[in-house]
Amino acid sequence: MPGQPEAPAIAIAALTKRYGATTAVDNLSISIPTGAIFGLLGTNGAGKTTTFKCALGLARPSAGTVRFGGEPLQPKMFESMSYMPERPALYDWMTGAQHVEAARRSFTRFDRERARELSDLFGLDLRKGVGKLSKGQQSALGLVLAFSIRPEILVLDEPSSGLDPVHQRHVLDLMIDAAAGGATVVFSSHQIGQVERAADRVAVLHRGKLVLEGIVEDLKAQEKIVEATFEGDAPTIAALDGNPSVRHLMRQGRLLRAYVRGSGDGVVAVIQAASPTSVRILDQNLEDIFLVAVGGN
Amino acid sequence: MPAIFTVDPHTGVPIYLQLIEQVKRSVALGVLAPGERLPTVKQLATDLTINPNTVARAYRELERDGVIETSVGRGSFVRQNGAGDAAAAALSDVASSAVDAAVREAKSLGLKKSQLREIFHHALERWYSSDGDVKEREN
Amino acid sequence: MYYKELLRVRRFFIVFALTVTAIGLLVVLFSGHAKVSVGDSPSPHYALAAQHVRTGDKQSESGSTQVYAPGIEISNEPSEPLPFSALLAIAGFVAAIFGTCVGTSLSCENHGHLEIAWTRPASRIGYAARLMAVDVAGIIAIFAYTLALCVAAIYAAGWLHYIVVDGQAGVNVVRFLLYALAWFALVAGLTASVRSRGGTYVAGFSWLVMALLLVLMDLSLPPALHALVKGLNYLNPLLYGSYSSGAEAARHVAQIGSVEAMIGLGAIIVLGIVAALTQWRVLEA
Prior knowledge:
Order of helices and strands of chain A: EEEHEEEHHHEHEHEEHEHEEHEH
Number of helices of chain C: 10
Number of helices of chain A: 10
Distance between the termini of chain C: 19 Å
Structural class of chain A: alpha/beta
Oligomer: heterotrimer
Low-confidence stretches of chain A: none
Helix content of chain A: 25-40%
Number of strands of chain C: 4
Structural class of chain C: mainly alpha
Helix content of chain C: 55-70%
Strand order of the largest sheet of chain C: 1-2
Strand content of chain C: under 5%
């Protein structure tokens, strides 16, 4: 319908998942537009894998919904959606070639030529039994299968785990190539460097909760560090404590660091009033932003 | 087409801003001629291993700033007219913020104004030729 | 979407077919020294598997067609006519073991493969149905193969003329197939939620447990417990097959006619498969 905004590729709303007394995911809401590469960051146990499982119907949410293009999950959506789990869910007793054949018969969009191409790219011998492959090669096979479906939505859980740096770069290339072709990619990673390159949007989970979300470029532009040195010990500045744009304060001897959202000019002015010997504004890269988001809470 | 741009995804400077600056620099210096075709979004994203939307954003801003123009199906090109001026104007903005930041940094390091001026003149002598650019010489 | 199950069932089929063929070859080799007979007393000489079905009230001349323990005797006694149903029983028995083995198909998926199994363009139930369809096809295939091999072995041994196509043979084709499928459904229903390798153990012990369950019917238990045991035994495929602990137990089984047996087995099949599918609806990866 003209004028109406397109429904996001994936819309997670108030997703909650409890396992007994533990809340693995707590009231998570994320919107992933079509064509985005969305990075999900978080420490181990933050709830990334659980989020994927709830989204893909592998587990039932305790509350909340997940919608794909506005619709709830239907089996036929898997014609153009692939999932690569963190631990490869492959069959030890089958060969790589048999996995490819099984995928070819299950998915109408499967591209056998592409599977062959990608296997060569990762140096996979498809004739070998999966049980005889190394963990990295198993991950590579999982990637080959996921990308050969030519999906419109790719969900990748730690896609680089176990891969050597050359292959890790290939994974990035594949994700970027997919997104350039219009696909939506969601991936979780411990490697912030990867997310910085490939993702245009990022969400940070911590203990099941969403602590940060946004466009990577904007976050970098908006998150600054105001660093000030003082003659004596860095003082407590009351005006900073209650300031909503200050995410985190760090004092170390004569050094005061304020992690701020925004240009930092306001905070600079406040700090100037306390007569520092010097003040400067620093950029934050994604790793800085991430560490503040999970550590500062 | 070999990549004539490089970006560092790991700094705190947004990648699209880095790209914009590099394109403007290339145009101002004549490395990219008026009417020359830029790499496609997909090509550049793939070459640099960065997100395509980031590249697209850079291209949009460059178009808004009058440095390039994009036609659907044909690609992005350096503007025939005025691209150089727009680029130069933008670059002088870049230069002034760099100088501004340097002065602020120097002040925070405790330099006096006269010390900074010395340093500035040394730098000018080092990088600019003696004809024309520097009008005064302070003692 | 069932290709993987095709490969899995094929592996089982090859093993079973080879085993059956080997046994058949042995029978042919021994045919010069022994003769097959259906004897009076169930003495366990060389035990191959078969079940004899009480053919209504009709009894053969020597009154030897009885319900008793799995046992074809190979002996040197004069041969009797060999009802075709006996061959069907052998095929059914082999197919039942096969069904027990492949019945863990859903449980095998649970062991670390659900991420790949449940992210296909089919609902969980649809996918499970496809898997089970392949399993059932495998069961039917091994049934047919075993039957054909029995006939071939008998032919090669020169005993073909002993085979008599008894009146019940037609019904027994269905009955023994149902018997095999009942074991399959039982194992599937019991293991559909099992995640670890435990599914294989359940399958492995199922025959032992079901045999014990049948034995329990003979023991004198308090009435409530006996009622429970009796109720459970209706879901016991062995009740509809055969069981031996002597003539007494045989009477339990003897009272079940072909039609009742088929209904009982059919119930097990339906309940087992429904239980398996229901468990998969609820399961989480």
